[in-house]
Amino acid sequence: MEKKLSDLEAYTDFERAEWPVLRIGWVAMGLFLLAGVLGLFGTGLFTERTEGDATLSVRYERYLRYSMSSEINIHTSGLARDSSLWINSDYLKKAMITSVNPEPESMDQLDGMLRLKFASRFPSDITIYLQPEDWGRQELTIRLNGRKKTIKQFIYF
What we know:
Elements: H1 5-9, H2 12-38, E1 48-52, E2 56-61, E3 63-65, E4 70-76, E5 83-88, H3 89-92, E6 95-101, E7 106-110, E8 113-118, E9 125-132, E10 136-144, E11 147-156
Parallel strand pairs: 3-11
Antiparallel strand pairs: 1-2, 2-4, 4-9, 5-8, 5-10, 6-9, 7-8, 10-11
């Protein structure tokens, strides 16, 4: 069977027009994979952060997905007998707290902040489980035993 080069040469114009489209597709797929590795679509290299020091540190995700559950871990050197964790109420407009571990003794709202009061001084880790309910940038301000920490998060589709 004899191959004809003239048949192959007939499609070179189409192939030259197709190459840039293929390269753009490869670049788009590469950027999509890179965004996934970096944490844009869930957990990744740059998504999870820990800020603070030995007395108060907060571990959280910088990028949250709309209506997907997430958690914020607060570690402290120790809770006082009558410790209160304060959370700014602006944060609660975009994220709903589904549960807190350990369970607070009481929850109330004062001065534009949510107060979670803990009776025990033994647990040094507090985990807040939440579900984002709105899109956009948000700031969470946490106050605990006179220390304050502000974190920034972004909720996307």
